[in-house]
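Key result, reporting period 2: structure in, sequence out.
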């Protein structure tokens, strides 16, 4: 092989190596995104603080109603020693969705009132059946609420809206929610940074492997004539 063809071979090899490294990096990014999965509901496990800790019909699960224009919460479900519950106690909806509060007619007079500075206020407690009150949420966050006559019986609930809200993993601040509390845990690493780290590791591994092959089989390409 002549010196000129050796140079061409080297340039070709390096172009191939660069292309392979780029492809490996792209594949690593895609793999990382697939592994993380799409979090269609939002930003993690909602942090309610101790707001729902004594609510008998809350088992730690938040009902996922994202992807829907509206969701329904029953007012006066069996909980807390009688018909003194909201059902479900915690529900997650998209920003812009409407939550309808439907009275069951059981448990006496009920109403829906935000804890803190939230937007929920159905007015005086009433004893009725059907959808008595609804609210469209337009700001992300966690919105805790209660029934005034039965707050002492733990007739409480919470609405999680959108993706920007306090989580038990990061303690990050949500949008409009008040009274839900937040943890003191360290901020979580953004998912984009995780993906970038995985992709960078793949690229480095691929590049080192190609460099090893080049060093082992490269060198002087000239052969005796």
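The corresponding designed sequence is given below.
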């Amino acid at each position: 092989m002549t010196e000129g063809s050796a140079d061409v071979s080297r340039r070709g090899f390096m172009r191939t190596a660069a292309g392979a490294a780029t492809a490996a990096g792209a594949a690593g990014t895609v793999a990382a995104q697939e592994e993380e999965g799409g979090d269609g509901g939002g930003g993690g496990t909602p942090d309610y603080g101790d707001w729902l800790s004594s609510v008998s019909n809350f088992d730690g699960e938040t009902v996922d109603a994202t992807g829907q224009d509206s969701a329904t919460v029953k007012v006066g479900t069996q909980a807390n020693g009688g018909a003194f519950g909201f059902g479900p106690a915690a529900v997650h909806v998209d920003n812009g969705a409407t939550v309808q509060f439907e009275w069951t007619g059981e448990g006496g007079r009920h109403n829906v009132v935000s804890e803190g500075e939230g937007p929920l206020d159905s007015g005086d407690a009433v004893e009725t059946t059907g959808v008595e009150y609804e609210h469209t949420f337009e700001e992300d966050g966690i919105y805790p609420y209660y029934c005034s006559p039965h707050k002492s019986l733990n007739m409480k609930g919470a609405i999680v809206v959108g993706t920007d809200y306090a989580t038990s993993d990061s303690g990050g601040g949500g949008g409009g929610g008040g009274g839900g509390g937040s943890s003191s845990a360290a901020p979580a690493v953004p998912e984009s940074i995780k993906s970038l780290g995985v992709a960078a590791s793949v690229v480095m591994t691929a590049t080192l492997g190609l460099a090893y092959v080049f060093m082992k089989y490269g060198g002087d390409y000239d052969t005796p004539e």
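The chain is about 25% helix and 20% strand. Residues 24-41, 179-189 have pLDDT under 50 and may be disordered. This case is discussed further under Risks and Mitigation.
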